[in-house]
Amino acid sequence: MSRKNRIKLPNGIYHISLKGFSDSWLFRNDEDRNKFLKILKKYQLIYLFTVYEYCILGTHCHLLIYSNGADISKFMHGINQSYAIYYNKQYNRKGHVFGDRFYSRITKDNYDLLNVAAYIHNNPKDIKGYNDCVEKYQFSSFGIYTGIFEDKYLLIDCDFILKIWGNDIIQSRIKFINFVKSKLCIEDFDGNLDIVQLEYLNNKINSPNLNNSFPAFERSVDTEKILAFLINQSNIPETEFLKKYNTKVNEHISFCILLLHGFKGLKYSEIIDIFKTYNLDSMSLKFSRGYDLICKEPYFKQLYYCFLKKFSIPISDELSDE
């Protein structure tokens, strides 16, 4: 029996969930949960999606993500693969870590969005000691919304959901907290919801993130334009940039591979055809090095910022499936 096609929208807001293989433990302890959050942050920086919420339990986890023009299948594949490698190494095991493919559903409007948001944040209620205080569960973003916990990985954008409740951020936070803890759906909740603003934001639900520094990104930028940008910014001649085994431009090539694979979504095999020199294993290492550069090196941080500023453009609302 063929599996159902995944519905995708370039700028959709998705409820995503992952579960362990055969419903086994996916996160055995806090170290596993922190590792997953670090991996999520890594891929957020590379693919530029926005995380509105998360809740990481034992056998599964939930995410609420705005794709921002990125293909969720590609960045979720990277997240799952990275965590599976860690998990198998950590526990000296082999085989599948995740059960089946990840679940995803696009939120239809802000009524739907708020119900999903409350559902995710109420997941810890079945854990002993958290039934009436889900905000105290450390590995849920609800504690970040309430102010109990810091967002130590700088993952969460709280503003979008809070602004649905009005422009007064303090009152909006109180309303949202009361809504989540009521365990009601939004249609039954009497919480002075700003209906006018809700209707306005319903028209914006599939528009670029209102709180981003840049508009959403069209990922089909020509490869030639990306290469031209790097050559121009680095003042490295094209002949040197594409020369085989040129150690003088190793860092720039790693940065370029990060852009081609992470931003544009090219396969490693397609990038190998461009540089005519690397194999799949070296591609992965170069990609990881590119990530390190934008995290740790001021020059490449600034170069990444300039790239994003140059290539930020509105994207379409057309649905696709896979």
Automatic annotation (TrEMBL):
Transposase IS200-like domain span: 9-123
Transmembrane parts of this sequence: 45-66
GO molecular-function term, one example from the UniProt record: DNA binding
Xref: SUPFAM superfamilies: Transposase IS200-like (SSF143422)
GO biological process: DNA transposition
Pfam families associated with the record: Y1_Tnp
Keywords: Membrane, Transmembrane, Transmembrane helix
Domain of life per record: Bacteria
Name of the protein: REP element-mobilizing transposase RayT
